[in-house]
Amino acid sequence: MNSESINAYNLSERVITYDADMALMHPNRTKMVEIALQVIPFEPQQSFTALDLGVGTGFFTQAVLDHYPNSRIIAIDGAEAMVELAKVRLKAKADRVDFRIGDFRQLGQIVSSQRGQLVFSSYALHHLTWNEKLAVIRDALGFLEPGGWFLNADLVVASDPEIEKRIQKIREQRIVQRASGRDPRFRDLDATRLFLDKLEAEDHDQPLKLAEDLQILKEAGLQSASVFWMEYREAVTGGIR
Predict the structure, then answer these.
(1) Looking at beta carbons, which pairs linking 130-136 to residues 24 or more positions away fall under 8 Å?
(2) Which residue among 88, 102, 153, 166 has the highest number of C-beta atoms inside a 10 angstrom radius?
(3) Do 170 and 73 belong to one domain?
(4) Residue-number span of the structural domain to which 174 is assigned
């Protein structure tokens, strides 16, 4: 994640509306986390250490902490404002989280020689280039003990430009429907497209094709890189180290 992306998520106006905007623009976020939790093969009472790449407001971390009451999480994010919001969300459970402010492109320095059994991420790695993503995931797999799991809930793009165009049109229509005229940013299709283009440029979004993401997972050293769920431009991928 480059400095521009980090700065975009350090803006107070962005942080305040982040979760509400995610519910409007990415309503599958809850389902994607649920799918990831279903895939994790650990027993509910199992003790383990996990690593969250891009904790944001703590949405995914909260779900893991709730599902696994004996888990502990190292939560990394470059945006301090987001981390502060995550601490508020997690409340008493925050004492099971080791928050670290930093760019996860320097993951090796941030976690040093620590090891764990799970690495997860949501809506964060699509800010990276191909090479950056490969390097980050390779470092993340270095954190995992043998048999550990890596899971990523994130964005992808279609292989065919015409299919991508159609998916984007469906996306715009659904956002307008969910907004129901209550948000001027999404009053119609044109306004929605303008807002999305501006937001993605500011955030330096650069999602890859699903096949490219799977190739990166394999090159990074993940066994049986798999797709566990996908709908249009959102997917849950991962596998076993």
Answers:
(1) 130/208, 130/212, 130/216, 132/105, 133/208, 133/213, 133/216, 134/216, 134/219, 134/220, 135/105, 136/53, 136/104, 136/105, 136/107
(2) 153
(3) no
(4) 161-200
- C-alpha span between 126 and 233 (Å, rounded): 12
How many angstroms separate the CA atoms of 239 and 218, rounded? 9
Specify whether 26 is located in the same domain as 145: yes
pLDDT value at residue 7: 47
Q: Are residues 149 and 48 in the same domain?
A: yes
Same domain for 177 and 217, yes or no, is no
Same domain, 122 and 41: yes
Q: Which two tokens stand for residue 23?
A: 């519910």
Clarify whether residues 220 and 166 are in a common domain: no
Q: What is the pLDDT of residue 6?
A: 43
Cα distance between residue 60 and residue 55, in whole Å: 7
pLDDT of residue 142: 94
Reported as a single tens digit per residue, the pLDDT across 77-114 is: 998 988 999 999 999 999 999 999 999 999 989 998 88
